[in-house]
TrEMBL record:
Pfam families: Oxidored_FMN. The lineage of its organism: Bacteria, Pseudomonadati, Pseudomonadota, Gammaproteobacteria, Pseudomonadales. It comes from Pseudomonas fluorescens. InterPro entries: Aldolase_TIM, OxRdtase_FMN_N, Oye-like. Residues 14-94 form the NADH:flavin oxidoreductase/NADH oxidase N-terminal domain. This is NADH:flavin oxidoreductase/NADH oxidase N-terminal domain-containing protein. It comes from the Bacteria. GO terms for molecular function: FMN binding; oxidoreductase activity.
């Protein structure tokens, strides 16, 4: 923690636009190493903190409401949901990409995903108004 805390103190001198943490191990676990307190580290940073790693809409809204993050990066979900913001806004089903399609192997499974309004996609239950209002109040422009 002392090393990370020192690093963040030094980064504050540069007036960075944001600090982006991967919480845990990418694509596997949100468990952070023993002795690391991401909330304490993000509190030391003097700018926006972006959380990342296996977030869903509910977790993003909850952590934002708690002040634990300022924004969230949905990395992998953007690959298979080119209209991710609209899907989250409308409570539509998300498409999960197979891991083997990530970042290589041509267009199939990388750039050929359908938009939510395309035939064959099922509409999931819409989030309630409170969730939508939280998005708006958080300052995130969906």
């Amino acid at each position: 923690m002392a090393t990370y805390g020192y690093l963040i103190q030094q980064l504050n001198r540069f007036n960075l636009a944001y600090l982006h943490f991967v919480e845990g191990a990418t694509a596997t676990s949100r468990t952070v190493p023993e002795g690391v307190d991401l909330d304490a580290l993000s509190a030391q940073f003097e700018g926006p903190f972006i959380g990342n790693n296996n977030y869903d809409l509910e977790m993003a809204l909850e952590r934002r409401a708690q002040g634990r993050i300022d924004a969230v990066a949905f990395g992998r979900l953007f690959i298979s949901n080119p209209d991710l913001v609209e899907r989250l806004r409308r409570g539509l089903e998300l498409t999960i990409a197979p891991r083997e399609s990530y970042y290589g192997g041509g267009a199939k499974g990388y750039t050929d995903w359908h938009l939510a309004d395309s035939p064959g996609l099922v509409t999931a239950q819409r989030p309630d108004v409170a969730i939508h209002q939280t998005i708006i109040q958080s300052g995130v422009t969906p």
